[in-house]
Each structure stands twice: as structure tokens, then as C-alpha cells.
Design goal:
Number of domains: 2
Strand content: 5-15%
Number of strands: 3
Order of helices and strands: HHEEEH
Structural class: alpha+beta
Strand order of the largest sheet: 1-2-3
Radius of gyration: 20 Å
Number of helices: 3
Shape: elongated
Largest sheet: 3 strands, antiparallel
């Protein structure tokens, strides 16, 4: 069962639109910089301005949280984390956000179970 607040099918078209606008904005900024700087500086500025938000928007469509029985799985673009909610009640290990060590996440997840 998917626990995502916004389904990926609804998020994907908006993320693609945002990625295209970011790339277009990067190209416009790069063209303006090209008028006053060398071409390689303009290309670098266009890549930083356009590709960074575009990759972030596309990576957002790859994140999801699933519940399979008592196992909560949070997966992203490069890694995933599994947590058994029945055995980790009240401990910090029940947080499914990768790298999170806060005690509030564990108590929140235990209260939700």
C-alpha cells in the first residue's frame, strides 16, 4: 500500500513541466551571460541554473513510501530504507527517512503504527 500524500501519476506531469521551465530558464540566462562573457562561462551558468532544478524535479517523482504488512519502505532515486514497525516501536530506528536520527521521528512513526 502506497503511503505517499501525492501519487506519482499526479506529480510526474507537473515535475516534467517544472523541469522544462527550469531548462528554458537556464538557456535564457545562459544567452544573456553569453552577451557579456565567453561561451564556456555562459554554458556553465546555463547548466547550473537549468539542470540543477530540472534534475531535482525529476528525482522527486522517484520517491515513495510503501507499507507491506508491518514493513515500511521508503525509497528514493538511489537508495531505500526498510523498517519493521512492529519490532521497532518507540525507538529511533522506526523512522524511514534515510539518515534521520531524531527521536521525534521515531515516536511519531510508533504513534502512527
Amino acid at each position: 500500500m502506497a503511503l505517499d500524500l501525492i501519487p506519482a501519476q499526479l506529480l510526474a506531469p507537473r515535475a516534467r513541466r517544472l523541469a522544462m521551465l527550469a531548462i528554458l530558464g537556464g538557456l535564457i540566462v545562459g544567452a544573456i551571460v553569453w552577451l557579456v562573457a565567453p561561451w564556456w562561462v555562459a554554458a556553465l551558468v546555463a547548466a547550473v541554473v537549468g539542470l540543477t532544478p530540472a534534475l531535482g524535479a525529476l528525482a522527486a517523482t522517484k520517491r515513495n513510501i510503501r507499507l507491506d504488512g508491518t514493513v515500511i519502505t521508503a525509497s528514493g532515486l538511489f537508495r531505500s530504507h526498510r523498517s519493521n514497525s512492529s519490532t521497532s516501536r518507540g525507538s529511533n530506528s522506526s523512522c524511514v527517512r534515510p539518515g534521520c536520527r531524531r527521536s521525534s521521528c521515531g515516536s511519531t512513526m510508533a504513534a502512527m503504527a
